[in-house]
Structure prediction request, 151 residues.
Amino acid sequence: MASRTQALNELCKPVVEAMGYELVGVEFQAGQTDGLLRVYIDQPDGIRIEDCERVSHQLSGLLDVENPIAGHYTLEVSSPGLDRPLFEAADFMRFIGRKARIQLDAALDGRRKFTGVIKGVENFQVILEVDQNVIRLPVDLIGKARLVPEF
Prediction:
């Protein structure tokens, strides 16, 4: 996880959790003129638009005071959705047996994109079954990861 994203995550987490929600993760995408700060929240009963509005209001105040992002940006608070993003090793452990789509920041054996079933996490590596082959992906190489919705 990038240091800026980690800092934003640590800044937002206490506020989100104090409101009774789980902070799933934080993404920041810098643009040429404006950036996008996306904060994913969840709770056992699911997330409604009102929940996003409440958290957005609280985080806006915090972010205005702390000013962790230079320049203009848009704050977006969202549920993780069916294609839930996976940010940490614990996320992969939580969803063992589910199918995930993973993109690495750097190629591993000439490949950056993998889709398969999460089998576990060991020694800072996600164990993924892809086409009946077991692949170990270093957590620190994972750029993006999402669950694949099952219907």
In short: The beta strands are 22-29, 34-42, 72-78, 99-108, 111-122, 125-130, 133-138, 142-147. The mean pLDDT is 94. The first helix runs from residue 3 to 18. The CA atoms of residues 30 and 36 lie 6 Å apart.
